[in-house]
Amino acid sequence: MGMLAAAAASALLASPQALAGRRRVSGAWTLRLRPATSPGAGTLRLHKFVPKCYIANIEVDVSTVSKEEEFDDQPSLPPGCSIPVVNLLGDVLDSSPFSLHDRASCPSDFEELPVLSEGEQQTLASTPAHPAGLYALYASYLFGNLVEQLWNFAWPAALAILHPSLLPVAIVGFFTKLSVFIGAPIVGKLMDHFPRIPMYTALNAVQVSTQLISAATVIYALKNLSHASTTAVVLRPWFIALVAAGAIERLAGLALGVAMERDWVVLLAGTNRPVALAQANAVLNRLDLICETVGASVFGLLLSKYHPVTCLKIACGLMICSFPVLVMLGQLINRVSCHALDSSRTTTDESICIDLLDLRKLVQNSLSAIKHGWNEYKQQTVLPASAATVFLNFNVALAPGAIMTALLMHRGISPSIVGAFSGLCSIMGLVATFISSSLVKRVGILKAGAAGLIFQASLLSVALTVYWAGSISQRTPLLIFLVSIALSRLGHMSYDVVGTQIVQTGVPASKANLIGGMEVSIASLAELVMLAMAIVANDVSHFGFLAILSVSSVAGAAWMFCRWLTNPTDEQRELFMFDPLYQVQAM
Description:
The chain is mostly helical. The protein has helices at residues 2-13, 118-126, 131-162, 167-192, 196-224, 230-234, 237-269, 274-305, 308-336, 350-356, 362-378, 383-392, 402-410, 415-443, 445-468, 475-506, 512-536, 543-566, 570-575, 580-586, and strands spanning 20-23, 33-35, 43-46, 58-61, 85-87.
């Protein structure tokens, strides 16, 4: 090893020029070698060497730097770091030939290259790249999501207390979905051109501000609005402000979710560590389910003991306190992960950012962003996996929600059974987050995704068959119907975790937010379409039609995904070369 280093140094110093090494991968610092100015003229010093880091693919350029060039402006090493020194003796400077083909002169270290065993590879795949950063990410996700879910339950509950009609809630919900459909692509594009931490801070500021504005409008209405017609409510200035603030708040919240679930977690877990990434995705899904349950329960408990205005003021206090905590956690994530979030995705172009933020071109920029996002989205290798996720959003009938609750209550089912059904679905979703990560470890992400979709489609087909048999009013068929739907949530949530990881693996970091925003936008469009169908077919007798559409969408997602697996392209094989499915086919 010493002979090779000496020969390399000899070859380099044979030129009258100094050395300048540069990284092939883009970064903010360079690695340089220079002749020492001390009396020991045969000394090379290594500058800007950071402990616990390594550099790959080093290129040495000896043609552009003169010997007299000074490098004294390079920052010094941190205290406590030692400087590696290579002493070049006089006999080394004799540039004698060094034959790499002569086995007798080659060091024995080069006769065999170390290869990780299967167990070591599995251990590496299960170990996150930045475990401390992941824990900080979980804390930030938990706290931010808890406040968000509490508010998502608070505003519809307050509106329901304010006015008995469902129209105000439906109007706010419709415009939030519309804002996501229109705004998600442009926000995703903007996020791909902004540094991560400043964008994270700005989005949190926007979300908290709009939550406070929304809460203020509802508090004003609760204090000043007496019995009024539905038309009088929806045309009031406070309600218009609530709709606008609610739309912006939902867009900012989804943008934060896309950033953390599609971009940050990939950097912290590691794209080439599939088991670690699957486990991180599963933890995020568990936290989301926990926050959804706890947020609703906490605000419901507050409503049972205090006046709605008091409850909303408590929620406002939590929102105000959440902002500095979330900003601090964002900085902590970056710090404990060796500033991994500072890595550049794309060159920050100020002209692009200014143009996207120009309110005078809002409609033009939105349409352009949707067009650009769609063109990028449909060119992705993992398009079928993402499209399958969108297809699952068409299932609004055979899933826990408002339509299923209305059906069961119309059939005279006991509220305790309805509540138990919702609780069982939540438990199945939580269990699925544990199953998915172990399934990925056993069979790989591709087979795990196919298994989740096929499992869900099969159980929903059973539920549809039982419903069309017309006997869910009886106890046994009703239990089969409800249990089939609840168990199908295992497949649904498993694919939700696995499908997310497939898209994370296949989409480059420079387009993660754009593609993620586009997927959310199309999913919102799917929900809008099904919402419109539910409005048209608003009679409970039409539930069978909605159920057929739901099963068809899930079955279509399973067919599309399996066809994608069985007809892989070369790019797809290269992308998932380490997945057991394609490794077996290659053998």
